[in-house]
Design brief:
single chain, alpha/beta, Rossmann fold, 6-stranded parallel beta sheet, 23 helices, 20 strands, TPP_enz, thiamine pyrophosphate, magnesium ion binding, TPP_enzyme_TPP-bd, flavin adenine dinucleotide binding
């Protein structure tokens, strides 16, 4: 074999990433992957040092969610590998395409207490869609092709390529043709399938006969790129749309057909679902939050479930009709099958459809307005979201950290068009996602205005990534919801055990604006709601360094949750009301 193309295994990995037009990539190096890093330098791979490997996956996950392209991370043997786990499970549960390259022990000495060695394959395997271990250097191209194919097909997910040290450092004479790839695997979904025609026809008949149908959209709508299909299906047939937190933006929140969030928190959607005679579920797993701990839909309701993963249908609710296939193609097939009856459907449902904007307005005026426009200090969370709705451009993004930020944002933030402008980490709902998620989103859409919404507890976890964002000249904005507490936990303790009975849920008062300034970023402290507009405009004007807006919000745990007044709510044994 010709030696002109002899290269290390590390370089072969980089060449396969470059062949897939991959990047950006986040990681923290170690000896096992040094040849990979050297090749990244020489060949110009867009690789960036991260300060914590979990944040590397969070950034890659958000990049994948927004762009549809494969997110990339790497980690070294042992603690680098195990630090990936939380982010990988987020991507696995959320359906985000990711390829993670992980260094492993030198095989000649594996099992002899090598530095940092552990059985990382056993630890990582449940956290990914597939784990591929490279046992022969010449198989690197084959295995990397497989990694991208698996990551982007079916329900997308993270794929780990485990690379022993001797493979990364070894040499092999590859041929140029070894690095050919299928460009379809650069982004998800790389393959699509559609429900069988007979099932679609039966489902269309059920929908056409319904008086009060409703479409429930999950995050699978965005994975599939199905927002146009949702809008077509809803508008042509006169069917309102509700969404999960991950499904927000399936239709514009400002559309008269939008019923908003359903599940644990809602505006008007839960009552509409309860009264519906035909519920179409698309790209949604019907998990605990979306079903309000499995009480929505009610047992016996007429449900049609469309999903790319067959085993998700019937896991939490047994549907009357299962449609196994891609959300975009499945909804378009339903629209085609309903073409002849669509005008009649719209006419029959005229009064029903008029209820939606009327009920939304009533909710706004009678339930939400007092908080949405509150002048109280500390700042009301609803007022903060109102200012974001008013000032975030239509092409902007709100990245919501787990728990507190996601629930407030999911309920009150408005996607102004049918697109994934709200990016929560609901696959695993870990806190700490807001800043690295904003980083990944900014890289996916460099010209957009990107805001990460995070609690002070979540921000504390990932403060080091402010340095990463500054080093990368990312002009993102992070809003720190500063309540000097692990807010969701403190609110639940208040709810369950009463005023004053808090344990390990309070934080020290910290001025995060000063922290940001000390790290070379742009810090702004907001203590009064009248300061929010100017703070947002000043932050959005920063294009080459991160801004941190430190917003003082209520310290009253009875008022920390979006739709629960903890002074009056009744808790039933065995249930979770928030």
């Amino acid at each position: 074999m010709s030696q002109t193309n002899e290269m290390t295994g590390g370089e072969a990995l980089v060449r396969m990433l470059k062949a897939h037009n991959a990047g950006p990539m986040f990681g923290m190096g170690g000896f096992q992957l040094l040849p990979f890093y050297d090749a990244a330098r020489r060949l110009g791979l867009n690789h960036n040092l991260i300060n914590d490997e979990r944040c590397a996956v969070f950034a890659a996950d958000a990049y994948a969610k927004v762009s549809g392209r494969v997110g990339l991370v790497d980690a070294t043997l042992g603690p680098g590998a195990t630090n990936l786990v939380t982010g990988l499970v987020e991507a696995l549960n959320a359906g985000s395409p990711i390829v993670a390259i992980v260094g492993d022990a030198q095989r000649d000495h594996a099992g002899k207490n090598m530095t940092q060695e552990t059985d990382q394959v056993s630890i990582l395997r449940p956290a990914c869609k597939e784990l591929l271990r490279v046992e022969a250097i010449h198989r690197i191209p084959e295995i990397m092709r497989r990694a991208f194919a698996v990551a982007t097909s079916g329900r997308p997910g993270p794929v780990i390529v485990d690379v022993p040290e001797d493979i990364a450092h070894g040499l092999y004479g590859f041929e140029e043709g070894d690095f050919e790839v299928d460009p379809a695997n650069e982004a998800a979904p790389s393959l699509r399938c559609r429900p069988d025609a007979g099932s679609v026809a039966k489902a269309a008949e059920m929908i056409a006969k319904a008086e009060r149908p409703i479409l429930l959209c999950g995050g699978g709508i965005h994975i599939s790129g199905a927002t146009e299909a949702v809008t077509r299906f809803a508008e042509k047939n006169g069917i309102p749309v509700a969404h999960t937190m991950s499904g927000k933006g399936a239709i514009a929140c400002t559309s008269p057909l939008s019923a908003g969030l359903f599940g644990r928190y809602d505006r008007i959607a839960n009552d509409l679902i309860a009264a519906s005679d035909c519920i179409v579920v698309a790209g949604c797993k019907l998990g605990e939050i979306a079903t309000k701990r499995f009480t929505i839909p009610k047992k016996g309701q007429n449900v049609i479930h469309l999903d790319i993963v067959a085993e998700e249908m019937g896991r939490t609710y047994e549907p009357a009709m299962k449609l196994w296939g891609d959300a975009r193609d499945g909804l378009n097939d339903l629209s085609d099958a309903l073409e002849a009856s669509s005008a009649d459907q719209r006419a029959r449902r005229e009064a029903y459809l008029a209820e939606i904007p009327a009920k939304m307005q009533k909710w706004h005026d009678e339930v939400a307005a007092e908080r949405l426009y509150s002048d109280e200090t500390p700042v009301n969370m609803a007022r903060l979201i109102t200012e974001l709705n008013n000032h975030l451009p239509e092409n902007g993004y709100l990245i919501a950290d787990g728990g507190f930020a996601a629930h407030w944002g999911g309920l009150l933030f408005n996607s102004k068009s049918a697109r994934r402008s709200f990016v929560p980490d609901r696959g695993f709902a870990s806190i700490g996602y807001g800043l690295p998620g904003a980083m990944g989103t900014q890289l996916a859409d460099p010209e957009a205005t990107v805001v990460g919404l995070t609690g002070d507890g979540g921000f504390n976890m990932v403060l080091g990534e402010l340095e990463t964002a500054r080093r990368m000249n990312l002009g993102l904005t992070v809003i720190v919801v500063n309540n000097a507490a692990s807010g969701y936990v403190k609110a639940l303790q208040h709810l369950m055990y009463g005023e004053g009975n808090y344990q390990s849920s309070e934080l020290a008062e910290t001025n995060y604006a000063k922290v940001a300034d000390a790290m070379g970023c742009h810090g702004i402290r907001v203590e009064d709601p009248s300061e929010l507009e100017a703070a947002l405009k000043a932050a959005f004007a920063e294009k080459s360094r991160p801004s941190v807006i430190d917003v003082m919000v209520t310290r009253d745990p009875a008022r920390m949750l979006p739709a629960v007044d903890n002074r009056t709510v009744q808790v039933k044994k065995g249930d979770r009301v928030a």
